Amino acid sequence: MTDSATTPQVELDGGTFAFTLPDHWTKWILFVLGGLLFIFGFVMSADPEFGGPVPAVSAIGCLLMLAACPTELAVKLAKIRAQMRPAAVKMRSDAGGVELESFWNSATVERPSHDDRDWVFPAPPEDDWHLDSRYAADADKELIPEHPNRVGTPRPPQFSNYGIFSTLAFLLLLWQASLLDWGRRPMEACLGCDVSTTTSGPHLAFYLIGISVIWLGVSVFMWKRAQAMQDTPTSNIRSMAVGTLELVGQVRPWVEHPPTVAVDGDLSKSVDDLSAWYWKYEIYRCRTVHYTDSEGNRRTREECNWETIRRDSGATPFIIHDGTGGVFISPDSFSRSEFGSHLVRWECRHDRRLKGLFTNLMFQGDVRRHRWTD
User: Fold this and answer.
1) For residue 201, is pLDDT > 60?
2) How far is CA 253 from the centre of its chain?
């Protein structure tokens, strides 16, 4: 049973300034690479041997650092989750990673060590669901601790990594565009040039214009989506109105618990308690490709890539419950479903099932790996 007195006071106001650092070693590599490119761009600009300033290199570094840093809200939610659910966070972290199941077949099972969409506060336990009256309010008749109407609306900081790095990248690209005249030459290097001898053309200027147009389009899309989210009210299920609204709650079974999902029909790859699911089976295939090089010579090269062979999805009706009441949900009526990161991924060198043997015979090339993702 959830108690309103146990719900902590969460401060989700970003304040004036917030600077975050990468939260994973892979993102640290991306962040350091972006920082080196940012510095190297100014070194190139100061060295006359490079033929003039090249601020576009520094702009790329800013974009890499922007992509490597999480938002202030994500950092706060991760800290709150670790404080409120330490056992669950540690259990998931310990269970995550890659486990070797068979050395001879190079069979592995990979599970994520964390999930940004996981519960932040403790969820109502199954013993408190009272499935005999599944649409009624819980015993305390209070909203679940994680409900937006209880926690409040997060406010982003006025100045953050995104604002700083994106502004720097935009200004650096403007600087680069102001220096361009013909091709990749700055204006001062092209004074007195014979335009007819210029072979490269204003390609870089077109690239910068293309980046700016894409950036503008993404910004407009994100702004419109943010406005649509702000205009959509978050309602309590007990008092929800007719029309467009947002519901937040806990998924609970309707008549019975959802059946076990056997990925690709293999009972050894089974997952339980999935109200909605999606899996795909891929093979890593290598082929020898013949091509003609720029000098007209016939050559061969090996191309390898993952190819999707089979996929499937499904769902069962469920109840979404926010503590004040429940409502029936039919996931088959959704126009789009986003499942987030995968739950588990199996991978091996050889699929020894009869189905796997047919796959190897049907596809040309060298099938080197098999992968199932749920």
Assistant:
1) no
2) 28
CA atoms within 13 A on the CB side of 292: 2
pLDDT tens for 82-98 read 888 888 888 888 778 88
Long-range pairs, 356-360, Cβ under 8 A, ≥24: 359/283, 359/309
> How many CA atoms within 13 Å lie on the side-chain side of 84?
19
| Structural domain span for residue 97 | 4-373
**CA 93 to each of CA 50, 212, 265: distance values in angstroms, whole numbers, following the listed order:** 48, 40, 29
Q: CB pairs under 8 A, 24+ apart, for 240-246?
A: 240/327
Separation CA 356–CA 332 (nearest Å): 30
Residue type at position 277? W
Instruction: Look at the chain and report how many structural domains it folds into.
Output: 1
Cα distance between residue 212 and residue 207, in whole Å: 9
Distance CA 29, CA 65 (A): 10
Pick the closest to residue 77 from 157, 158, 146 (CA basis): 146
pTM: 0.73
Residue 162, Ramachandran bin (φ over 0: left; ψ between -120 and 50: alpha; else beta): alpha
Question: For 149-159, how does the pLDDT look when each residue is reduced to its tens digit (9 = 90+)?
Answer: 888 777 778 88
